[in-house]
Specification:
Strand content: 5-15%
Membrane topology: Peripheral membrane protein
InterPro entries: NDUFA12
Subunit structure: Complex I is composed of 45 different subunits.
GO cellular component, one term: mitochondrial inner membrane
Family: Belongs to the complex I NDUFA12 subunit family.
Length: about 150
Amino acid sequence: MGSFLKLLHRQFVVPWQEVVKTIRHNGASDGGYFPVLRGFFVQWARFNEPKHGKLVGTDELGNKYYENNRYFVARNRWVDYNKETWNQMWDYNASQVTPEWHRWLHYMTDDPPTKVPPTSRPFLIKHKRNLTGTKDCYVPYSTTRPKIESWKP
């Protein structure tokens, strides 16, 4: 009978404990009404997969990096993008990840930059987000003469 109870515990109790951990982990930190549930549903809407894990570190942009080895490899490391304003909560992309943390997220190294910082190079520029698709994007101008000129009366 003991093995049957262990089986029931693994099938029902442990998954509910994981759900409770996930709901607590993804709680909103800005207060308001029902911050725990609101944060959980926002996380679900943003990533379609609410997760919980150990905070590994943060970068200079405010992104938080997590790891939970109970998930599959290539799904056990993730980034929670900085969300200071409402627009930032829904407008995020992969170019917001700094190169140091990109190495750790994509398994190029096992040690995060908080443990083993990468060597600094004097020729490297500061990381910034890709602005394509925003109002601040770069738009080149043409230096060639057009083939067809418009008629001016």
